[in-house]
């Protein structure tokens, strides 16, 4: 009689954690070029992900990065380009 190998024990099925909706919203709005809204949603989403054990951390972080880049873009626009328009308008170059 031969000894048959015992069947391998399969791990129990564990579904992936639910993705946080605010993280997805932060990501999408960051891609669309919004600035402040993705930053707010991203921070709230990271807090919820930590407390609830949800997924979507990468979406929230990407939304935060894109939101902060958008804020930097608006600040550069306001500090550099807007004064240039006033100087050009005052000198009659328009």
Describe this structure in words.
With 94 residues, the protein is mainly α. The chain has one domain. Helix content is 66%, strand content 0%. It has three helices and no strands. It has helices at 21-31, 36-52, 57-90. The longest helix is centred in the C-terminal third of the chain and has 34 residues, at 57-90. It is rod-shaped, with a radius of gyration of 25 Å.
Report, as a whole number of angstroms, the end-to-end distance. Answer: 98 Å
Rg over C-alpha atoms, rounded to the nearest angstrom: 25 Å
Anisotropy-based shape:
rod-shaped
Low-pLDDT runs = none
Largest sheet: none
- Which structural class do you get from the secondary structure elements? mainly alpha
Describe the structure concisely.
The protein is an all-alpha fold and 94 residues long.
Task: Provide tags for this entry.
94 residues; mainly alpha; 3 helices; 66% helix
Write the layout of secondary structure elements.
Elements: H1 21-31, H2 36-52, H3 57-90
Helix pairs in contact: 1-2, 1-3, 2-3
């Amino acid at each position: 009689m031969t000894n048959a190998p015992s069947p391998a024990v399969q791990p129990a099925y564990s579904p992936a954690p639910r993705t946080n909706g605010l993280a997805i919203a932060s990501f999408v709005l960051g891609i669309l070029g919004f600035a402040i809204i993705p930053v707010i949603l991203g921070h709230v989403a990271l807090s919820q992900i930590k407390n609830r054990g949800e997924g979507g951390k990468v979406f929230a972080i990407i939304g935060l990065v894109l939101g902060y880049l958008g804020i930097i873009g608006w600040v550069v626009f306001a500090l550099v380009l807007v004064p240039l328009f006033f100087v050009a308008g005052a000198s009659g170059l328009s």
